[in-house]
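Hello K.,

You asked for the raw outputs rather than the summary table, so here they are, unedited. I folded two proteins back to back in the same session to keep the settings identical. This is the first:
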Amino acid sequence: MMYAAGLTVREISDLSHWQCTTIHAHFQSRERYAPGTRAAHEAALDARGVDRPTVSWRKLLAEVLEFQEALGRLPHHKGDDTERRLHRWILNQGRAYRNGEMSAPKIILLDGLVGWSIDARQRELDQAWRAKLTSLIEFTATYKRTPRYQNHSTEAE
Protein backbone atom coordinates (compact mmCIF):
# COMPACT_ATOMS: atom_id res chain seq x y z
CA MET A 1 0.00 0.00 0.00
CA MET A 2 2.83 2.41 0.82
CA TYR A 3 4.55 1.68 -2.48
CA ALA A 4 1.29 2.17 -4.37
CA ALA A 5 0.76 5.44 -2.51
CA GLY A 6 4.05 6.77 -3.89
CA LEU A 7 6.34 6.46 -0.88
CA THR A 8 9.97 5.94 -1.79
CA VAL A 9 11.85 2.82 -0.78
CA ARG A 10 13.82 4.89 1.75
CA GLU A 11 10.59 6.22 3.31
CA ILE A 12 9.12 2.72 3.48
CA SER A 13 12.36 1.47 5.04
CA ASP A 14 12.30 4.20 7.69
CA LEU A 15 8.67 3.51 8.53
CA SER A 16 8.83 -0.27 8.52
CA HIS A 17 12.37 -0.69 9.90
CA TRP A 18 13.27 -3.09 7.08
CA GLN A 19 16.45 -2.71 5.04
CA CYS A 20 16.19 -0.97 1.67
CA THR A 21 17.66 -3.99 -0.11
CA THR A 22 14.92 -6.23 1.29
CA ILE A 23 12.23 -3.80 0.18
CA HIS A 24 13.78 -3.49 -3.30
CA ALA A 25 13.88 -7.27 -3.67
CA HIS A 26 10.24 -7.53 -2.59
CA PHE A 27 9.07 -4.96 -5.14
CA GLN A 28 11.11 -6.56 -7.92
CA SER A 29 9.47 -9.91 -7.29
CA ARG A 30 6.09 -8.22 -6.93
CA GLU A 31 6.47 -6.65 -10.37
CA ARG A 32 6.99 -10.13 -11.87
CA TYR A 33 3.76 -11.43 -10.34
CA ALA A 34 1.69 -8.25 -10.66
CA PRO A 35 2.86 -6.29 -13.72
CA GLY A 36 2.14 -2.56 -13.53
CA THR A 37 3.01 -2.23 -9.84
CA ARG A 38 6.04 -0.07 -10.62
CA ALA A 39 4.08 2.11 -13.07
CA ALA A 40 1.40 2.72 -10.42
CA HIS A 41 4.10 3.60 -7.91
CA GLU A 42 5.80 6.07 -10.27
CA ALA A 43 2.48 7.75 -11.08
CA ALA A 44 1.69 8.14 -7.36
CA LEU A 45 5.23 9.42 -6.69
CA ASP A 46 4.89 12.02 -9.45
CA ALA A 47 1.55 13.10 -8.01
CA ARG A 48 3.25 13.81 -4.67
CA GLY A 49 5.37 16.47 -6.36
CA VAL A 50 9.08 17.20 -6.24
CA ASP A 51 9.06 19.18 -3.00
CA ARG A 52 7.33 16.62 -0.80
CA PRO A 53 8.09 16.28 2.91
CA THR A 54 10.31 13.21 3.06
CA VAL A 55 10.92 11.12 6.16
CA SER A 56 14.33 12.73 6.71
CA TRP A 57 12.75 16.19 6.32
CA ARG A 58 10.09 15.27 8.90
CA LYS A 59 12.79 14.00 11.28
CA LEU A 60 14.59 17.34 11.09
CA LEU A 61 11.32 19.16 11.68
CA ALA A 62 10.70 16.99 14.75
CA GLU A 63 14.20 17.81 16.05
CA VAL A 64 13.60 21.54 15.62
CA LEU A 65 10.17 21.31 17.27
CA GLU A 66 11.70 19.46 20.24
CA PHE A 67 14.45 22.08 20.47
CA GLN A 68 11.94 24.93 20.43
CA GLU A 69 9.74 23.23 23.01
CA ALA A 70 12.68 22.55 25.33
CA LEU A 71 14.39 25.95 25.07
CA GLY A 72 11.53 28.22 23.99
CA ARG A 73 13.42 29.53 20.97
CA LEU A 74 14.64 28.57 17.54
CA PRO A 75 18.15 27.16 17.11
CA HIS A 76 20.87 29.78 16.76
CA HIS A 77 24.05 29.87 14.69
CA LYS A 78 26.18 30.38 17.80
CA GLY A 79 25.19 27.09 19.46
CA ASP A 80 26.78 23.66 19.35
CA ASP A 81 27.07 21.57 16.16
CA THR A 82 23.53 20.19 16.41
CA GLU A 83 22.03 23.62 17.02
CA ARG A 84 23.96 25.11 14.08
CA ARG A 85 22.80 22.26 11.82
CA LEU A 86 19.17 22.86 12.80
CA HIS A 87 19.66 26.62 12.35
CA ARG A 88 20.95 26.11 8.79
CA TRP A 89 17.98 23.83 8.05
CA ILE A 90 15.53 26.50 9.23
CA LEU A 91 17.31 29.15 7.14
CA ASN A 92 16.96 26.94 4.07
CA GLN A 93 13.25 26.39 4.75
CA GLY A 94 12.67 30.13 5.20
CA ARG A 95 14.57 30.91 2.00
CA ALA A 96 12.52 28.37 0.03
CA TYR A 97 9.31 29.78 1.51
CA ARG A 98 10.18 33.40 0.68
CA ASN A 99 11.19 32.41 -2.88
CA GLY A 100 7.88 30.58 -3.39
CA GLU A 101 9.66 27.23 -3.82
CA MET A 102 8.02 25.37 -0.92
CA SER A 103 5.14 22.95 -1.31
CA ALA A 104 1.89 23.41 0.59
CA PRO A 105 2.34 20.24 2.71
CA LYS A 106 5.67 21.52 4.03
CA ILE A 107 4.20 24.93 4.84
CA ILE A 108 1.37 23.27 6.75
CA LEU A 109 3.78 21.07 8.68
CA LEU A 110 6.00 24.05 9.53
CA ASP A 111 3.07 26.01 11.01
CA GLY A 112 3.79 24.43 14.41
CA LEU A 113 7.22 26.04 14.42
CA VAL A 114 6.93 29.60 15.73
CA GLY A 115 8.94 32.19 13.80
CA TRP A 116 10.43 29.89 11.16
CA SER A 117 9.54 32.06 8.17
CA ILE A 118 10.96 35.28 9.56
CA ASP A 119 14.59 35.99 8.76
CA ALA A 120 17.04 36.60 11.61
CA ARG A 121 17.41 40.35 10.99
CA GLN A 122 13.65 40.87 11.03
CA ARG A 123 13.40 38.82 14.23
CA GLU A 124 15.99 41.07 15.90
CA LEU A 125 14.11 44.18 14.78
CA ASP A 126 10.86 42.76 16.11
CA GLN A 127 12.46 41.97 19.49
CA ALA A 128 13.89 45.49 19.73
CA TRP A 129 10.49 46.97 18.88
CA ARG A 130 8.78 44.86 21.55
CA ALA A 131 11.37 45.94 24.13
CA LYS A 132 10.73 49.60 23.32
CA LEU A 133 6.98 49.04 23.48
CA THR A 134 7.36 47.43 26.91
CA SER A 135 9.42 50.43 28.07
CA LEU A 136 6.75 52.80 26.79
CA ILE A 137 3.99 50.90 28.59
CA GLU A 138 5.99 50.91 31.83
CA PHE A 139 6.72 54.64 31.50
CA THR A 140 3.09 55.57 30.86
CA ALA A 141 1.94 53.37 33.76
CA THR A 142 4.45 54.98 36.14
CA TYR A 143 4.13 58.66 35.09
CA LYS A 144 0.53 58.63 33.73
CA ARG A 145 1.64 60.35 30.52
CA THR A 146 3.53 59.65 27.34
CA PRO A 147 7.23 60.53 27.21
CA ARG A 148 8.27 63.78 25.61
CA TYR A 149 10.32 63.54 22.47
CA GLN A 150 12.32 66.70 23.18
CA ASN A 151 13.11 68.39 26.50
CA HIS A 152 12.87 65.13 28.42
CA SER A 153 13.56 65.37 32.12
CA THR A 154 14.79 61.83 32.91
CA GLU A 155 16.89 59.19 31.20
CA ALA A 156 13.92 56.79 31.20
CA GLU A 157 11.89 59.37 29.33
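The second followed immediately with the same parameters:
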Amino acid sequence: MSEETTPAKPVLRVVRGDLTEEELAALVAVVAARNAAAAHAADRRPARVRSEWGHPARQHRTPLRVGLGQWRRSAW
Protein backbone atom coordinates (compact mmCIF):
# COMPACT_ATOMS: atom_id res chain seq x y z
CA MET A 1 0.00 0.00 0.00
CA SER A 2 1.52 3.31 -1.02
CA GLU A 3 0.50 6.58 0.52
CA GLU A 4 1.03 9.73 -1.44
CA THR A 5 1.72 12.83 0.55
CA THR A 6 1.28 16.33 -0.73
CA PRO A 7 4.27 18.60 -0.20
CA ALA A 8 3.84 21.07 2.64
CA LYS A 9 3.54 24.75 1.91
CA PRO A 10 6.94 26.44 2.49
CA VAL A 11 7.20 28.58 5.59
CA LEU A 12 9.80 30.93 4.07
CA ARG A 13 10.29 31.97 0.51
CA VAL A 14 13.08 34.20 -0.74
CA VAL A 15 11.56 36.57 -3.29
CA ARG A 16 14.57 38.70 -4.16
CA GLY A 17 18.26 38.57 -3.63
CA ASP A 18 20.89 35.92 -3.64
CA LEU A 19 21.32 34.48 -0.14
CA THR A 20 24.31 32.47 0.89
CA GLU A 21 23.83 29.35 2.95
CA GLU A 22 24.97 31.19 6.07
CA GLU A 23 22.51 34.06 5.53
CA LEU A 24 19.66 31.63 4.94
CA ALA A 25 20.59 29.69 8.09
CA ALA A 26 20.65 32.93 10.10
CA LEU A 27 17.22 33.89 8.75
CA VAL A 28 15.76 30.50 9.64
CA ALA A 29 17.28 30.71 13.14
CA VAL A 30 15.75 34.14 13.76
CA VAL A 31 12.30 33.06 12.57
CA ALA A 32 12.45 29.85 14.62
CA ALA A 33 13.51 31.77 17.75
CA ARG A 34 10.71 34.28 17.30
CA ASN A 35 8.13 31.53 16.89
CA ALA A 36 9.47 29.71 19.95
CA ALA A 37 9.27 32.92 22.01
CA ALA A 38 5.68 33.52 20.89
CA ALA A 39 4.72 29.95 21.76
CA HIS A 40 6.42 30.28 25.16
CA ALA A 41 4.58 33.54 25.87
CA ALA A 42 1.26 31.88 25.11
CA ASP A 43 2.01 29.09 27.61
CA ARG A 44 2.57 31.43 30.54
CA ARG A 45 -0.06 31.69 33.22
CA PRO A 46 -2.07 34.91 33.36
CA ALA A 47 -0.96 37.43 35.95
CA ARG A 48 -2.40 37.04 39.43
CA VAL A 49 -5.07 39.49 40.42
CA ARG A 50 -3.76 41.70 43.19
CA SER A 51 -5.68 41.69 46.44
CA GLU A 52 -7.22 45.03 47.29
CA TRP A 53 -6.38 44.46 50.95
CA GLY A 54 -2.72 45.37 50.52
CA HIS A 55 -3.20 47.95 47.76
CA PRO A 56 -1.17 51.13 48.36
CA ALA A 57 -4.22 53.31 47.78
CA ARG A 58 -5.67 52.01 51.05
CA GLN A 59 -2.92 53.85 52.90
CA HIS A 60 -4.47 57.17 51.88
CA ARG A 61 -7.54 57.24 54.04
CA THR A 62 -9.00 59.92 56.20
CA PRO A 63 -7.42 60.14 59.64
CA LEU A 64 -9.29 58.75 62.62
CA ARG A 65 -10.71 61.43 64.87
CA VAL A 66 -10.95 61.28 68.62
CA GLY A 67 -14.35 61.86 70.16
CA LEU A 68 -17.70 60.42 71.10
CA GLY A 69 -18.92 57.81 68.57
CA GLN A 70 -15.92 58.24 66.27
CA TRP A 71 -14.84 54.61 66.63
CA ARG A 72 -18.16 53.51 65.17
CA ARG A 73 -17.92 56.06 62.31
CA SER A 74 -14.34 55.02 61.42
CA ALA A 75 -15.66 51.95 59.60
CA TRP A 76 -17.75 53.99 57.19
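DSSP finds two helices and no strands in the chain.

Happy to rerun anything if the numbers look odd on your end.

Regards,
P.
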